[in-house]
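User: I'm curious what two different proteins look like when written out as structure tokens. Can you demonstrate?

Assistant: Sure. I'll show them one after the other, since each token string lines up with its own sequence. Here's the first protein:
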Amino acid sequence: MANAVADFPADSVVTRADQDGFGTYSDSTFATVGSAGFTLGQFKEELRASRPDGPTLDALLGAMNRYLAEATITIAARDLEDTDEDFARIMREYADGILLFSISEDSVWTVAQTDTTGLEAYFQDRQASYQFPERRRVIAYSSRVDSVLTRVGEFLDGGVSPRGIADRLAADSMSVRIDTVFVSEPSDTAYDRALDLEVGDRTEALTNRSTRTILVLDGIEAPRGKTLEEARAEVLTDYQDHLEADWVARLRERYDARTYPVVLADAFAEEKAAMPETATE
């Protein structure tokens, strides 16, 4: 090692090794772990990944130690697979899981995300399944300051529009957040209070998480079908399920795969019977 870096400036040993390598010493073995030897050329290829913590020879040696430590773990794991059946099984399951994830990503998730034509066709064929129920259109005025909501209530009672309220508060250096929320069923939140309002009515200031909020029922929207953009999250999930079911069916047909869930249930019947029952109310 000393000979390989003898001509490198002391303050840039790591830089020179990274840029130029170790020249004629690249094939020199600098360490052996078990039956595996490691050359300076191999180390150069992994130098950046070994995270040198400076430009000097000491930093280079530290990176080399980390490289050897990781290599030793890899070799030990490989050898352990040959001597420990449980560890070998776990590694096979891990490898199979990674492979299944990769195949699923290529065959289902990536396709669903990128196949806009297929997604649109899927939606058109099932458009009736994506519907909005009757919804209450609620305007929510929120602020952390009660005095701001007091002014909002006064403006609302005086018939001032949402835009007008925002402008008047801004003129007085006061701010309020104004959101439009659609409520169709109870959600155990402050917005449930809107279900009891008549169109045009408002609530008092309510506690809504970390803010205070006044709700105004602006109108009631009749049930209608969703557009693709409005239903995109639902359609994407359903399209992924559709692609996965089609993919599994093709695999079963190609490889003549058969499953016997009844046999599996019987195999674990004894263990299931021994499990304590979950109490229900």
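Here's a second, unrelated protein for contrast:
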Amino acid sequence: MRQVTNPDRLSGLDASFLALEDGGAHMHVGSCMVFEGTAPTHAEFVAQLERRLHLVPRYRQKLAFVPFEAGRPVWVDDPHLNLGYHVRHTALPEPAGMDELRALAGRVLSQRLDRNKPLWEIWLVDRVAGDRFAIVAKTHHALVDGISGVDITTVLFDLEAEPPAAAVAPPPDPWLPRPEPSPATMLAEAIAERASGPVDLARGLAAAVARPAAAREVLAGVGALARAGRSAPPSPYNVPIGPHRRFAWVAEDLGRFKAIKAALGGTVNDAVLAVVTGALREHLVTRGRDVDALPPLVAMVPVSVRADAERGALGNRVTTMYAPLPVHEADPVARFGLIHAAMAGLKESGQAVGAEALTRLTGFAPPTILAQAARLQARQRLFNLTVTNVPGPQFPLYLLGRRLLRIFPQVPLAGNAALGIAIMSYDGTVNFGLLGDYDAMPDLDVVAGALRRAIDELAAAAGSDAVPAAAR
């Protein structure tokens, strides 16, 4: 009889995010959200979360670790769940503007989540720029990826300022945590699942033999991934990172990117990567680099492979592609064309298919192998930085009647990669969140300023600068 895998056990990919933290990285994803109006009280906010928390049950669970590292950790109910711990309340120093909010976000995102508790925190920031307030949130990558994180945000917030009575769910039944499994039980389950691993692998190989075309596609994708990730050129971004972070952001109108796409014949993602490349080119010049002679930088681009039917499910369904960023090209339109051609080639090469196949194999790797792989990754030279673009909801969201204005996302830094850029579209805006190692990227604001200029430059060169930049 086939052994049924514990559905609460971390996948190999999820467990690898825990192992990566041993190299100094913080593997939480996060965001800084700005709302209009006066902040709710801490008690009101906690009550709102308590009413919705049953919709995301993982937020009530913590990790339990298998004795002797015989298996990957499992999610168990936290019998001591205290929302007062997870929902923090703070205020900004005067003048309590956006600069002070960015500094606070950087400090919050510098702090590693406590693995003895559910892996999330939310900070309610009382007053920002006079008539606004903010929320800084972070959730461990082992719990959620970018796409399912968007769905969780949609669940926790309202779609209208005053939801109709019929749309308000009745209060849930009181929550009673399940008893924690004993160490002996976890050990026995892990050993049984490990014993079934070779059988599952054999089934996968047999299925591949039965479908040779699919097998060839996977092998071709693995080969393309290996060729793309051989090495990235040296750059100021590839240095050992510490625990502290800086955070910056740029907001723009989605209409500008759509107009660029329409004028140049590519995609919004091509336009996003083109302006990121332009910003990095300018930043490298300020660092004294000869960009004209520099090979393309390599961006690690996470790609969601989550099916529509899986939207809202927690855990990670994400794979990787390596995208070239031609910082040597001075002309913004030519730069866009190079990126458009490269991204089309990446899709045809099957990199994502190959990466997903390799990711599935981590499901058979014991924690000790995952930890060793994480230590190797901390010294990687496969890519220069992470760039991730996540489509967010294109309609307004509300929290207790207050409208969400901006959401600036955060992607974790990888070992030996001191810069990460996350992009999320929301309600007609495109929001860039820039995370940098505190010591390696003291000029992170220079990158943000260069990004604003790169957007203006590409829009003007594409003849689409008439689109109003309402989000500035």
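A detail about the second structure: The chain has 13 helices and 14 strands.
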